[in-house]
Design a protein that fits this description.
Layout: E1 8-12, H1 19-30, E2 34-36, H2 37-47, H3 50-61, H4 67-80, E3 87-90, H5 96-105, E4 110-115, H6 118-126, E5 128-131, E6 137-139, E7 158-159, H7 166-190, E8 194-198, H8 203-220
Parallel strand pairs: 1-3, 1-4, 2-3, 4-8
Antiparallel strand pairs: 5-6, 5-7
The structure holds BIS(adenosine)-5'-pentaphosphate.
BIS(adenosine)-5'-pentaphosphate is lined by residues 13, 15-21, 37-38, 41, 58-59, 62-65, 70, 91-92, 94, 98, 124, 128, 137-139, 142-143, 163, 172, 202-203, 206.
Length: 221
């Protein structure tokens, strides 16, 4: 599938909605460069860069990393890709201020919102495990590894993300998503850019819904 009207896509949704899971599949399917803000930040923390050192405390508390730091990171990432090909941006923007900063860099075609209720977010994130070496994401309930707590891809140990504790998940949902992201979602709705997809059901079901929604949008544009 390809659609000239939907090649600059931002992915929105609460923590644990499955943005990362779907972003990987979607980027492959649409042949779009993928930029994952959370992964860029976690890599900076792991490598101990000046940005990572500043970002860590905010991430551990479930708060947004300061505006200037994140915008600089995204600007750099967007400069590295071929703008003509489009992009899939997971985790940016998260509020109106970030959306304005993005608009100053590039327009977007679609804001794709994966909608999942709070109870499901808590269920998914308490069972999420990630590979400490390659970053592959698992779920002990829905996508378990073949060997207990060991990565299928590289054999390293699976760990829980430090911000997947119940208190931090609650803050990410209630403040970052329910408070900060709602005016952003509303603004994309008003501009006719918002596409909302139900994030409940299996990974394959949600992916099929996303593709259908994008195709319908393309057909209508
Ligand atoms: P980030 O890493 O972006 O976290 P998030 O938005 O909270 O999203 P998650 O990664 O937790 O969830 P996801 O929606 O990608 O779900 P996943 O696919 O893993 O950000 C982390 C932190 O970085 C922020 O708190 C903030 O501090 C900072 N930050 C990031 N962006 C920023 C920005 N723009 N500005 C400032 N600060 C920023 O799926 C979750 C689990 O569910 C997995 O176990 C998966 O296997 C499972 N799963 C997925 N789909 C399904 C399904 N359909 N059914 C059942 N299980 C499923």
């Amino acid at each position: 599938m390809g659609c000239a009207g939907a090649k600059r896509i931002v992915l929105l949704g609460p923590p644990g909605a499955g943005k990362g899971t779907q972003a990987e599949r979607l980027a492959r399917h649409l042949n779009l460069p993928l930029i994952v803000t959370g992964d860029l930040l976690r890599a900076a923390v792991r490598e101990g860069t000046p940005l990572g050192q500043k970002a860590k405390a905010y991430m551990d508390r479930g708060e947004l990393v300061p505006h200037e730091l994140v915008v600089a990171l995204i600007r750099e990432a967007l400069e590295r890709i071929d703008g003509e090909k489009g992009f899939l941006l997971d985790g940016f923007p998260r509020n109106l201020e970030q959306a304005q900063a993005l608009e100053a860099i590039t327009p977007i075609d679609v804001a794709l919102l994966i909608d999942v209720p709070r109870e499901e977010v808590v269920r998914r994130l308490s069972a999420r495990r990630v590979c400490e070496r390659c970053g592959r994401v698992y779920n002990l309930l829905t996508q378990p590894p073949q060997r207990d707590e060991i990565c299928d891809a590289c054999g390293a140990k699976l760990v829980q993300r430090s911000d997947d504790t119940p208190e931090v998940v609650a803050k990410r949902f209630d403040v970052q998503y329910n408070q900060d992201a709602q005016p952003l979602i509303e603004s994309y709705r008003r501009k006719g850019l918002l596409l909302t997809v139900d994030g409940m059901g299996s990974v394959e079901e949600v992916f099929a819904r996303i593709i259908r929604a994008l195709e319908e949008r393309c057909a209508g544009s």
